[in-house]
């Protein structure tokens, strides 16, 4: 999983044409699309300043915190509307390949952002996954330092945290008045995160990272009280507010449908997450069909390996296999690092190139451990530094080797790291690609990579093939099941545990993740199934002319596009490849 703000989604497929299809360039329209792209990037960096260090865009100041006051959010919405109108005034047919990619990303992101206003998310922002106690502590660790301007930016930003926390508390109080309440289980997780942060001395806090990274003694002396008094004071106020005032009013349920406009909000979140115009029922139906096929495949594999045609017996045999478990947490870490080396070596056969940037595995920091934060990938804009797969050890005793190596593939190579690192290499032509990481494409590629790795012989254990199928597409069922179709927590937990991927503790973590990021879990297989379908269609269309390495290059070389734009790109490539093959 890559934890990120879902901002880029949707597009008209016919509008995107592959560069190799020999579309003539028209320079006249290009300055306009470039100007709009520049305005959009500025807006995104303003509304999500955590994107600045991730993007690698030079010159952007790092002195602000995300806007959460109603008046600033209204100003952001007004600029989104202006950009939307200006973008719709362009003639897409007059844009070159890079311009059409920028158009696709902007059109999709703006449509999603405008649709999500119905959710009023600032009024129920408490989250152990994306709450400010997590995202801003990471932002502090990514804060630029080392120059007088950078130091002043850091001081200005983190001096503002107390006011930021107070505004968030005011938003949450207003939310309670309007009927918005976060699940009790989530609030409890966040209080635990805050307790762990507050237990740290100022010098060990992640918020002190700017001073730790800077050798200037005067800066350290100025920054320490900002953390020890201002930041820790804000964390304490927020913690006490949640524990004493909010928790008694938190709700027991986890369905989004329990909130005002919950149904419309979930539809908007599905659209933002999947980049497709599917209803919750349609998403669920696609997921159920894929799960049914996966069950058939598992039963077939189980019959050969374990001599049983029963799904539960097959999954139990996988779970109970002594050689499928770890003796220590360190063994899980070492196994994952060996899996990274193996998948890096074997994946090369399926690609025209692998990214120059290395990938690394790090253990999730102690301040986030035990709170349900899952494995995730953190991009690194500096190509000389590795992108990082953050490995949690909360459930190492029940983690399986088959599950661990599937996750390594998903998060590193050929999954997130390969795709995101290659996208960053393309950003010179389409600057939006530095921050336009469409969830359905990014997670879809990682899910597709799990299947590809099996084809390439990456998995060492005989269990990974069953494990990856057991969970695949279930997110498309359980997520809308919870939020729109009345699934109880008990029914959802049973569905998760049935997959063999989760024990009850891990399933509880997943349920609270679904509660605070509705719709996001559907993006994985919405994208993965679409990429697999595009490959199958390409193989059928091109026959003996199909080249897997060329197909992957086309999927990756356009960057993280909305799924409709990706389909248009691959269909154009098919046409060009057929012509080239028949000459």
From TrEMBL:
**Domain of life assignment:** Bacteria
Q: Which UniProt keywords apply?
A: Signal
Q: Does the keyword Cell membrane apply?
A: no
Signal peptide bounds = 1-29
The name this protein goes by in its record: DUF885 domain-containing protein
Protein's organism? Sphingosinicella xenopeptidilytica
